[in-house]
Amino acid sequence: MDDGGRKQHMVGIFDRAAATYDSVGPRFFTYFAQQLVESAQLTPGERVLDVATGRGAVLMAAAEKVGATGHVSGIDLAPDMIARTSAIIAERGLTQAEAQVMDAENLNFPEATFDVVLCGFAVFFFPDYAKALAGFRRVLNPGGRLAVSTWGAGDNRYDWQREVIGKYAPPGVREQMRQMQQNAPGPAWDKPAGLQAVLSDEGFTHVSVTEVARDFYYATEQEWLDVQWSHGARTWLEVLPPDLLPTITSEMFERLRAMRLADGIPQHQVALVALAKK
């Protein structure tokens, strides 16, 4: 699949997820959006670009920080995400915020437009991440700040998920999963040193990476499944044979029941938050 095909594939995934994205189960994205915005140390009156805004978790937090004298532009390549986020902006009367469909690798803004660029859990999706980061630098003012988040180490209690999906997935998908589990060449987005190296290599300075972790809990097995369908994880669920989904779901639910604690079904989420300067 070429870069254009990969982009359209991801647009489809997130458009189909938009209705429930960050609105079912534990609010991972809302929590880590606050951490990202706090790290950027936004001040009233600043102009901010939120790349891959999704349902606006980062955008809303940033809009609160910059206030009525500032401005936050949110962009995303998924039209349904933008439509829903624009509706939220209108409902809340946020005159300092807007959202529009735009490709992160082809930013349609003049040079030195923003004081801060934010990008939550998205840079690893960009087929040409170097081009995207170069665009971030271009639209930043001299001395402007970049704050990026990626996922850190996964919760190994969920290693069974790959096993179950691989058991029922078509052969081509199983091979793709096998290759992903190997150490394929490319940035180590889930390692502090890897994320720091990427930003430094693309010309950013004063790069620092902080690990942020928190335990979340699912109330029920069905809530866990609903959350998987609400974000990028649905990529793997969509390739499973529909006629086998009841069997697959039953097997997954059995694994989840074995994990249940007093507070619910646990998941330890780790995020890396990087801060850098132009």
Please give a structural write-up:
The chain is built from 11 helices and 7 strands. By secondary structure, it is of the alpha/beta class. A 7-stranded mixed β-sheet has the order 3-2-1-4-5-7-6. Strand 1, helix 3 and strand 2 form a beta-alpha-beta unit. Helix 2 packs parallel to helix 3 and helix 6 runs antiparallel to helix 11.
Distance between the termini: 33 Å
Sketch the major β-sheet: 7 strands, mixed
Strand residue percentage? 15-25%
* Tally of DSSP β-strands: 7
**Which stretches are low in confidence, meaning pLDDT under 50 for 5 or more residues running?**
none
SSE-based structural type: alpha/beta
The percentage helix is 40-55%
Compute the average pLDDT: 94
How large is the count of helical segments?
11
Widest sheet, order of strands:
3-2-1-4-5-7-6
**What general form does the structure show?**
globular
| Helix/strand order | HHEHEHEEHEHHHEHHHE
Tell me the layout of helices and strands.
Blueprint lengths: L2 H15 L10 H13 L6 E5 L5 H10 L4 E6 L2 H14 L4 E5 L12 E7 L8 H11 E12 L8 H9 L2 H11 L10 H10 L3 E14 L2 H9 L4 H4 L7 H15 L5 E13 L1
Parallel strand pairs: 1-2, 1-4, 2-3, 4-5
Antiparallel strand pairs: 5-7, 6-7
Structure keywords:
single chain; 278 residues; alpha/beta; 7-stranded mixed sheet; 11 helices; 7 strands; globular
Question: What would you say about this model in short?
Answer:
Helices cover about 45% and strands about 20% of the residues. With about 280 residues, the protein is α/β, with parallel strands linked by helices.
